């Protein structure tokens, strides 16, 4: 065995690894945005973004999400306050003009001294891919018209653009964040929402009127493109001191998701396919230990992902597994311990999380190990080809990332 001189390939490789590690832990600046020091200020209740639409029993808080596994169905949701009104959604494609209709269901709930309006959820099925549809709600009273575009058929070479927002709330900064997303020239086609919606629970007795104001605030985007929902800690609304002992009561009444389509037994963990992506939504605040429903579902779900059909495997959750910030430090650690080996085994591409109001991103730890292996094997393996392949794969989809630093 020869001596390890400074010029030996091994020493060079170690130096490369150190330099590579330095690059990985310091990604540099990617935006000129600087978070302000001041605490976010709530929008007042009479802010224009909270305006109730005019007209008797006018539908408000209109929002849509994907309604099945592959994107051929849409769940349309809205609230009426004067009376239940009809559950009908009238819709037609841009091409056919032939009007169809679907019937939904009405839900109400009480929370302490609050009684909800009439919450409508209606699933429109058998839509064509890649088609613009118009839809009308409020039939019989005040009608309001919106539109959406269905995604392309699920497949490996289907470009698609997702936006990403978490921890939105309803402050002046929340409005800046949503406007920032809407005005981005990349035009996100679907929004991945990584939890903490209205922050109604920070108001006295979890004032559920703030769920209504938030619904009206996001309508301008959520009525026109699907928002894919993830539950955060501000959705739990567990408050036994005022008699509220059912977790997620307001959230689960207001934001329906297609969880049954992926074999889930609860709306807090589920999956969808959209374009070239397989998106798995997990619940940081539902049981996830061994033998729990979420654990068993995920264990059976991951092997179902067909990477030749959906090369992108994306996971959404609220509490991140990696976080160097002092707030919420290591709150995701126990879930990481439970599930990370599966994420490595099934080669999850990217995990999006919220909760920590300080933006961070990293390559995955397994990727860092992979990089190390690549550098060590540089002198005897075609690693450059492997990197080039990885870059080609990355180029097939865009992500527009927006985070709200409002709280
Ligand atoms: Fe949170």
Q: What key attributes describe this structure?
A:
407 residues; alpha/beta; four-stranded antiparallel beta sheet; 18 strands; 23% helix; globular; disordered N terminus; disordered C terminus; binds fe (ii) ion; Purple acid phosphatase 10
Folded structure, characterized:
The protein has 407 residues and is α/β, with parallel strands linked by helices. 23% of the residues lie in helices and 20% in strands. The chain is built from eight helices and 18 strands. The protein has a four-stranded antiparallel beta sheet. A hairpin with a 2-residue loop joins strand 6 and strand 7 (114-115). Helix 1 (9-25) packs antiparallel against helix 7. The chain is globular, with a radius of gyration of 23 Å. It starts with 8 loop residues before the first helix and ends in a 6-residue tail after the last strand. The model is unreliable at 1-7, 12-19 and 370-407 (pLDDT under 50). It binds fe (ii) ion (FE2). Fe (ii) ion binds at residues 167, 196, 232-234, 318, 355.
């Amino acid at each position: 065995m020869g001596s390890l001189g400074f010029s030996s390939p091994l020493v060079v490789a170690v130096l490369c690894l150190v330099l590579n590690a330095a690059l990985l832990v310091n990604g540099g600046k990617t935006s000129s945005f600087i978070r302000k020091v001041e605490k976010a200020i709530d929008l007042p209740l009479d802010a224009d973004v909270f305006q109730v639409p005019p007209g008797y029993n006018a539908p408000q808080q209109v929002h849509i999400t994907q309604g099945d596994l592959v994107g051929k169905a849409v769940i349309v949701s809205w609230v009426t306050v004067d009376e239940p009104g009809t559950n009908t959604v009238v819709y037609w494609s841009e091409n056919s003009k032939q009007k169809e209709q679907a019937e939904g269901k009405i839900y109400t709930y009480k929370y302490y001294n609050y009684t909800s309006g009439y919450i409508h959820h209606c699933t429109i099925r058998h839509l064509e891919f890649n088609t613009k549809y118009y839809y009308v709600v409020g039939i019989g009273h005040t009608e309001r018209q919106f539109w959406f575009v269905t995604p392309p058929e699920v497949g490996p070479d289907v470009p698609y653009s997702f936006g990403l927002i978490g921890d939105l709330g309803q402050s002046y900064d929340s409005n800046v964040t949503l406007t920032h997303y809407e005005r981005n020239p990349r035009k996100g086609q679907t929004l991945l929402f990584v939890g903490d919606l209205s922050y109604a629970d920070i108001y006295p007795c979890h004032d559920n009127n703030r769920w209504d104001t938030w619904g009206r605030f996001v309508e301008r985007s959520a009525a026109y493109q699907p928002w894919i929902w993830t539950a955060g800690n501000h959705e739990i609304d567990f408050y036994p001191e005022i008699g509220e002992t059912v977790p997620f009561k307001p959230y689960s009444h207001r934001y329906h998701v297609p969880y049954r389509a992926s074999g889930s037994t609860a709306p807090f963990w589920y999956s969808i396919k959209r374009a070239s992506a397989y998106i798995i939504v997990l619940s940081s605040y539902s049981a996830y230990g061994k033998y729990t429903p979420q654990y068993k579902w995920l264990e059976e779900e991951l092997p179902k992902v067909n990477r030749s059909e959906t090369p992108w495997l994306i996971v959404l959750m609220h509490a991140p597994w990696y976080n160097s910030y002092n707030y919420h430090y290591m709150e995701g650690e126990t879930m990481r311990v439970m599930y990370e080996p599966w994420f490595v085994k099934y080669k999850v591409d990217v995990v999006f999380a919220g909760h920590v109001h300080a933006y961070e991103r990293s390559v995955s730890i397994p990727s860092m190990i992979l990089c190390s292996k690549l550098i060590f094997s540089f002198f005897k393996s075609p690693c450059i080809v492997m990197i080039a392949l990885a870059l080609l794969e990355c180029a097939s989809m865009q992500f527009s990332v927006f985070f709200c630093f409002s709280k």
